Amino acid sequence: MKTPTASSPLYYIGLMSGTSLDGIDAALIAIEGDSPPHLVATHAEPMPDALHHLLLSLCHAKQVSFAQLAAAEHAFCQSQAQAVQRLLAPLSISHAQISAIGSHGQTIEHAPLGHNGGPAYTLQMDNPSLLAELTGCTVVADFRRRDLAAGGQAAPLAPAFHQALFGRASAHQLVLNLGGFANLTWLSSQPTDPVIGFDTGPANALLDGWFARHQGGRFDQDGSWAASGTIDNALLVRLLSEPFFQQPPPRSTGRELFHMAWLEKHLSGQEAAEDVQATLAELTAVSVAQGITHLKIHDGPLTLITAGGGAHNTYLMQRLAYHLPGATFTSPAAHGWPEDWIEAGAFAWLAHQRLHHLPGNLPSVTGAAGPRVLGGIYAG
Length: 380
Ligand SMILES: Nc1ncnc2c1ncn2[C@@H]1O[C@H](COP(=O)(O)OP(=O)(O)OP(=O)(O)O)[C@@H](O)[C@H]1O
Ligand SMILES: CC(=O)N[C@H]1[C@@H]2OC[C@@H](O2)[C@@H](O)[C@@H]1O[C@H](C)C(=O)O
Prior knowledge:
The chain has 380 residues and is an alpha/beta fold. The protein has helices spanning 49-59, 66-88, 128-135, 145-149, 158-166, 204-215, 224-227, 233-240, 260-266, 273-295, 314-323, 342-355, 363-366, and strands spanning 10-17, 23-31, 38-46, 98-111, 121-125, 139-141, 173-178, 181-187, 196-202, 303-307, 328-330, 376-378. It folds into 2 domains: 10-154 and 340-378, 2-Layer Sandwich (Nucleotidyltransferase, domain 5); 158-335, Nucleotidyltransferase, domain 5. The protein is built from 13 helices and 12 strands. Strands 1, 2, 3, 4, 5, 6 and 12 form a 7-stranded mixed sheet that branches. Strand 7 (173-178) and strand 8 form a beta hairpin. The mean pLDDT is 95. The chain binds adenosine-5'-triphosphate (ATP) and the ligand CC(=O)N[C@H]1[C@@H]2OC[C@@H](O2)[C@@H](O)[C@@H]1O[C@H](C)C(=O)O. The site of adenosine-5'-triphosphate has 23 residues, from helix 6. Keywords: ATP-binding, Carbohydrate metabolism, Kinase, Nucleotide-binding, Transferase. InterPro entries: Anhydro_N_Ac-Mur_kinase, ATPase_NBD. Its EC number is 2.7.1.170.
């Protein structure tokens, strides 16, 4: 196994298609010596409408045929291969120089506590064998299930990567990812303190779903439709009564709990659609602020590195600032990592960890019995 040195970096590609189902993010990273991973190039492969709707329907399907699953998996893998092709095409780095692709796969369902008394499971649709065949690269995949097997939540996994990227600063770091769901990572200024990380609740998944239903289109640009509404406090209280928001970490969640039917259950039917959108943004802002309060930070002024697509939602960011008075919001771009690329970068880094037999999880975050080497290798 090659070891990275300052003169010969190792290259990895991370492929992430998150719970927003907006597209496949491809990030090429370089690992040189002991330095934090470096972002070299990126490509966002848009999710074709047909695939977006197919995956969304699978996430909420009560019954699925094997043929439907196979069709979705095949189309998804073709898009992944396309993403790799388009990422590398303008570069002087060839497929042969890629140590491995880290493929997250598409989360279809996540039930780390099991369902109705059944075993814990987390399901990422993926076809790493086909991806290895289509790209000629070694693929590392199935990152979550080893943590689950060790009694962990299998999510969030990004906190370990946040530590690799930002953990050397002398001051504390608080990283907020606003994806389909939101998660927080706390890196203390004392490197010996355990990393804390957990999902705070829904973010873009519900905002996108309500927007698509009432306005058409994929998402509420800059949160302008939400900003045109009024927060419905009674609705907010009903939404926040969901026990998940009171659950102590380790905790993770997804579309199996927070879906459109969950929202509808709490609606009186009298609400204006834009008021619901404003209230959903408020739900994200309040649940993140409550998550931060739960951390009881006494480590200097609060500084947040905000990442994920929700960091572009101006209205949501204004509501977060309102609920976190005195906090400073920074972009990870200051560390060379623009907000949209951290998660894809995380799965590239996890592939490196796997090839070097290094742990990928943080038991202090997921609750697993111990550090574990995550993922399986599919030779190129
Ligand atoms: N300019 C913008 N205004 C409002 N929302 C935006 C904007 N840009 C991106 N978004 C939101 O970000 C979402 C995509 O975010 P991201 O790529 O972080 O999600 P994800 O990869 O599915 O995340 P995760 O895996 O963490 O759930 C879009 O679906 C949209 O809701
Ligand atoms: C099961 C799953 O796919 N979870 C995602 C989701 O999207 C955000 C949040 O919920 C986080 O827990 C996780 O993704 C990131 C990459 C993580 O594991 O850190």
